[in-house]
């Protein structure tokens, strides 16, 4: 049956006029992921009365977790959500992540010294699998400190073949002298689909506010954002401060 469907599909493609075939190709393809590495975004909501205790425990015991896989960054959310932490973990493949999870479940130190104490402090946990978009690389900020912004955009269905170029233009228009520093741009693989994220670094929350005002009068930025917003359903952001044990500071 699969072979028959495949043959029918190829026959239909042959019958398409060249213009229609080209349009179908444009709508069904886009920039492809060139490697298997992915980034797991995790957001934990903490009981308000346990926020300080959770961060202290994590600071003391995070080495038990990083012994198993690579931590990219760990932040405490300051604006856009209270009593939350956000962290990014890198994996080379899904099988590597599965191996890490299996090893953690058998690690007595991790379970007794951290998990058994941390879980009662949490209200909820959420995760999402993301890839770096093909044109983005992970960058370190110019210096330590400052504030990070995670800007998240829910794009309309269609994928990067439809809105990828405009999203890239909108993001890179802000990644210029006098603006913020783009740490990385990501697109979702597991979680809400057609979702993209831009992780930014600013010297301070005040500098970010100044940049926002500046962008509203920058014709180059305004034009790029207007071209992209036609494909946008919703957006949200959070401002975060890196924890002392975060590799990205």
From TrEMBL:
Recorded GO CC terms: mitochondrion
InterPro entries: Dimeric_a/b-barrel (IPR011008), NIPSNAP (IPR012577), NipSnap_domain (IPR051557)
Coiled coil: none
Domain of life: Eukaryota
Pfam families hit by this protein: NIPSNAP
Domain (NIPSNAP): residue spans on this chain: 39-136, 148-247
SUPFAM superfamilies: Dimeric alpha+beta barrel
BP terms from Gene Ontology: mitophagy
Sequence similarity: Belongs to the NipSnap family.
Protein name: Nipsnap homolog 3A
UniProt source species: Gasterosteus aculeatus aculeatus (three-spined stickleback)
């Amino acid at each position: 049956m699969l072979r028959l469907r495949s043959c029918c599909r190829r026959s239909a493609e042959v019958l398409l006029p060249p213009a229609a075939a080209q349009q179908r190709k444009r709508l069904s393809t886009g920039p492809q992921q060139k490697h298997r590495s992915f980034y797991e975004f995790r957001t934990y909501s903490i009981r308000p009365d346990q926020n300080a205790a959770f961060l202290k425990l994590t600071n003391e015991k995070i080495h038990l977790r990083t012994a198993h896989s690579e931590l990219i960054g760990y932040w405490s959310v300051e604006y856009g959500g209270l009593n939350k932490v956000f962290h990014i973990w890198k994996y080379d493949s899904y099988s590597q992540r599965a191996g890490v999870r299996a090893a953690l479940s058998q690690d007595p130190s991790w379970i007794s010294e951290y998990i058994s104490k941390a879980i009662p402090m949490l209200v909820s946990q959420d995760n999402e699998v993301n890839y770096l978009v093909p044109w983005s690389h992970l960058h370190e900020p110019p210096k330590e400190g400052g504030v990070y912004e995670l800007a998240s955009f829910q794009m309309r269905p269609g994928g990067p073949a439809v809105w990828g170029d405009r999203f890239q233009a909108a993001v890179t228009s802000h990644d210029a002298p006098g603006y913020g520093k783009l740490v990385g741009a990501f697109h979702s693989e597991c979680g809400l689909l057609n979702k993209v994220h831009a992780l930014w670094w600013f010297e301070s929350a005040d500098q970010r506010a100044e940049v926002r005002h500046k962008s509203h009068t920058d014709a180059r930025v305004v034009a790029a954002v207007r071209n992209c917003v036609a494909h946008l359903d919703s957006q949200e952001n959070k401002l975060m401060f890196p924890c002392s044990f975060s590799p990205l500071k």
